[in-house]
Structure formats: structure tokens, C-alpha cells
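Retro notes
What went well: the complex prediction finally ran end to end.
Inputs used:
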Amino acid sequence: MARTAGSHSDITGPKVADAALRLFARHGYAAVSMRQIAAEVGVQAGALYNYTPDKQSLLFDLMRGHMDELIAASDAQGSTGAPRDRLEAFVRFHILFHLARPDAVFISYMELRNLTPENFTVIEGLRRSYEDRLETILKAGTDAGVFAVADTKITTLAIIAMLTGVTTWYRASGRLSSEGVAELYWDMVRRAVNA
Amino acid sequence: MARTAGSHSDITGPKVADAALRLFARHGYAAVSMRQIAAEVGVQAGALYNYTPDKQSLLFDLMRGHMDELIAASDAQGSTGAPRDRLEAFVRFHILFHLARPDAVFISYMELRNLTPENFTVIEGLRRSYEDRLETILKAGTDAGVFAVADTKITTLAIIAMLTGVTTWYRASGRLSSEGVAELYWDMVRRAVNA
DNA sequence: GTCTATAAGTAGATAGAC
DNA sequence: GTCTATCTACTTATAGAC
């Protein structure tokens, strides 16, 4: 199916999302103008509106896409074994997934304030759904007596905050591999929850 | 010493900083205008420039003030006993200090991108100085054989990320007191590092 | 699908009256 | 010290030519 001359929607579309992701992560949503995004893509500002109805949708689509991908990948790798094995799989998955997408992670944690109330509700729901997967593991292990966790909800939030924190300091060029980092964090989590 | 009629610098100055702190925390530095801050204070936009040379200084002064206060308070409470006692004191201090200043904490972690390079360097130095206090404790405990920590630098960052995370979900109206939260987190940290 | 041009509004910061 | 008024530049988003 030949396309109209000058039509580049299948190329420009992803480039717009990529440019927005990179610029939002670097400078923050509010500090980035549509003109900056357009310049990064290599088009004029008006052309962006062929790919997004407005700037807000650009942010929301990036965040929803990231959360959908996170949940789908988490469920795809989900071990069904003992709580301790499921926890280990969760910790390693969370770190590797987040280290591979530093920009999307940064945006998803930093730009919640810049979502409209309706969009915020959607993203919050997805985030909570992801957290529930970890809490379910902690509850199962506590019920089985292999974990000693005083408060599964707070332990869930504490572990996720600790794990996600890797994205603030990790550099691929540093002395540790992603797997090495995951190993260190799994050791800490394991000891913190073991009965 | 009578002041000139209409002079309110000793009242307006702190109100400007308070308004900027609250608005920056709520909406983000880039999304807040000088006119919004002025409206919150109850003056016109031009009057703000009696208290700050520009918007950037407003942000930097808030962040530097927060970091200075954090370091001073940390040193003031610093236990000099055994590593385990010093770690417990650090954990409890960090949580109570941060839960008492949610807006300043939020700004200091979220608005680093909006600092000029020179200002960023200053804040980063203060942050690292604070982190060093925790790493020193972990090293002392590891050398003494009471902690088993594979990598003191990464463990330092992991613990701080976990502890600071409380500010994202804690509500004073919730079921837990600040002290109760500190207790739960200290339990996790203790088990994660104990030999 | 992309361009140029533009509408309509807001930004940070300053000048000068009071 | 605060006000009003203003400068210059930039903002998101749209209209219409090609």
C-alpha cells in the first residue's frame, strides 16, 4: 500500500514519543516546550499535533505505556513457586526492568503532579496494582511462616522505594553490572524479611 | 527603631519563602509563576524582587536551607556509641526529620533538575556529605564485625532511598505515628545489615 | 503530513510613582 | 516596600496553504 508522498507518520510518531520521553526526563514536563520537542524530532511545532491532541496526552501516554509494560512484564515472568522464590524473582525483575528504562521510570515517579486529576487516577491505579503483586508475595510468605513481616503494606512500599532508588545512582559505565546490583539488593531484601 | 510606614520586610520575607515552598512542592518549580507566589503572599509580582534576585534563587535558597538544617540536626543528635546504636539513631532521626518537612523533602529530591549547574553542584555536595555520615556508620560496624554489608556505598544509598520513601505515602492522619513508622523501618534496616 | 503564520495568553524581570 | 505599567520573549494550540 503506497503512501502519500511526504507521509512519515510511521517514523515521526515514535520519534515524537522518544523525544518527549528524553526531554521530559531531562528537564521536566513543565520546563519542556512543544517547540523543543519538535526541534528534537526535526519538524515544526505545529506538526506535533498530528500525533498528539495536546501536551498532556504526550505525558499521559508515556506514563501509561510504561506502567502497562511494567505490569505485563511482571506477570510474564511471575514465578509460581514458594514465596521466597517469588520474592527473589520479583526483586531481580524490578531492578533489571527499571535499570533498562531510566527515563520512563524517572518520568513516572516525578511527573505525577503534572497529570490532570483523571489521568492521575489512572496511573495511580496501575501503580497500586503493581505494588499489590509484591504485597501478595509478602503475605503468602508471612502466612507460610517463612517471612517475618510486621506490616506487609509498609514493607511493600519500603522495598519498592529501595529497589527503585537504584535508578538515581546507577550508571552502566560504573563498576557494577545490573545483575550485580540485583544480587546486592536481593541479599538485603532477603535478610530484611526472612523469618 | 521605628520602621517606615508600609515596610513589612520582616513579615513578607518569610511569607515569600513559605509560599514558594508550598507551591513548588505542590505543582513543581517550572509550573509555578512568580505571579502565583505573589498572590499567595498577598502582594503584587514586582514586590517579590525585594526579597529575591530571581526565581532560581528562591528555589536554591529553599534547598540549601533544607540541606543545611538536615546536616546540622543530624550532627546535633549524633550518637557516639556502638555502630549499632549509631545506626539506630540515624534511622530514627532520618525518618522523623523527613516526615516533619514533607514539602522541603519533596523539593530537594524533585527539583534538582531545575537548579543551575553551579547551584546543583552545591546541593549535590551537601547531599553527599549527609550520605557519608551513614556510610561511616556502616563501615565502622562492618569493620567491627557487627554488620555484614557487602558494599557500604550501595547499602547507604539503598537505606536512604528506603527511608526517604516514607514521605511519599505517610499521612499524619493515618493509622501509624511517626515513631511507629520509624520502629518498623528500623526493624527492617537492622535485619538487613546485621552480621 | 508538514509548513508558515498567527491567535491569545503568560512568563520573568524592570522602571518609576508613591 | 509596594504599587501599576510595561518590555521582551515565550507558551500552547489552531488555520489554511501546499
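What we learned: Chain B touches chain A at residues 26-31, 110, 113-114, 150-151, 154-155, 157-162, 164-166, 168-169, 176, 181, 184-185, 187-189, 191-194 (CB under 8 Å).
What to try next: split runs per interface for comparison.
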